């Protein structure tokens, strides 16, 4: 029989991320996590303080994995690279943005906060003042989190899938084109969404508009 792997914080965080990805944040508990790892719940407390510590650890790891933009790039390209890196990382683990937007976790380590600092630096280089940076950050954050929400099942479940055609079928069959001509016209296009390429296109629109915040 192969020896049991020692329990470590890294193993706990890996298992917690996998469990939360399938069960959601409410389905992540110390008891369930311990069962997944084949240990008693009390054994977890030698490595993590509580569920909040676990969620902070998960978020921290995901943010730490975001590749930083080349600081030598012009500011629009740094915003684009950083935002796209955040989008890709969070979209792979949509339970993480759910933990963030519900204030159940926050990235705290220096490495995890680097991408955010990079964004702020690019905004300042664009000539924005403090309030302009705040507005720019809000616009980019809204695009990232909104895009993930719209392309996943409420921040959990399968990632990267546009709304299935069957969700639009009731509208297709029930709408009266004479009464809602524009809605009827756009429906086929809504079903043809390409999530990442659409995100990039929308991000470029946001970036182009940032100088207006000066």
From TrEMBL:
GO terms of molecular function: DNA-binding transcription factor activity; transcription cis-regulatory region binding
Entry keyword DNA-binding: yes
Swiss-Prot/TrEMBL keywords: DNA-binding, Transcription, Transcription regulation
PROSITE patterns: HTH_TETR_2
Pfam families given in the database record: TetR_C_1, TetR_N
A GO BP entry: negative regulation of DNA-templated transcription
Claim: DNA-binding is one of the keywords in the record: yes
Name of this protein: TetR family transcriptional regulator
Organism name: Nonomuraea phyllanthi
């Amino acid at each position: 029989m192969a020896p049991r792997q020692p329990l470590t914080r890294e193993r706990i965080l890996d298992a917690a991320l996998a469990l939360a990805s399938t069960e959601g944040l409410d389905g992540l508990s110390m008891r369930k996590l311990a069962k997944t790892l084949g240990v008693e719940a009390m054994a977890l407390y030698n490595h993590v303080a509580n569920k909040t510590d676990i969620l902070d650890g998960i978020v921290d790891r995901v943010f730490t994995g975001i590749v930083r933009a080349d600081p030598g790039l012009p500011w629009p390209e740094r915003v684009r690279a950083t935002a796209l890196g955040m989008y890709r990382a969070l979209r792979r683990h949509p339970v993480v943005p759910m933990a963030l937007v519900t204030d159940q976790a926050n990235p705290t380590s220096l490495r995890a906060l680097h991408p955010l600092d990079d964004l702020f630096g690019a905004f300042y280089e664009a000539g924005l003042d403090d309030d302009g940076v705040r507005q720019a950050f809000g616009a980019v954050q809204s695009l990232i989190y909104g895009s993930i929400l719209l392309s996943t099942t409420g921040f959990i479940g399968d990632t990267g899938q546009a709304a299935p055609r069957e969700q639009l079928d009731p509208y297709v069959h029930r709408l009266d084109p004479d009464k809602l001509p524009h809605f009827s016209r756009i429906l086929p296009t809504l079903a043809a969404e390409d999530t990442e390429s659409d995100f990039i296109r929308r991000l470029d629109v946001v970036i182009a508009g940032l100088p207006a915040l000066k």
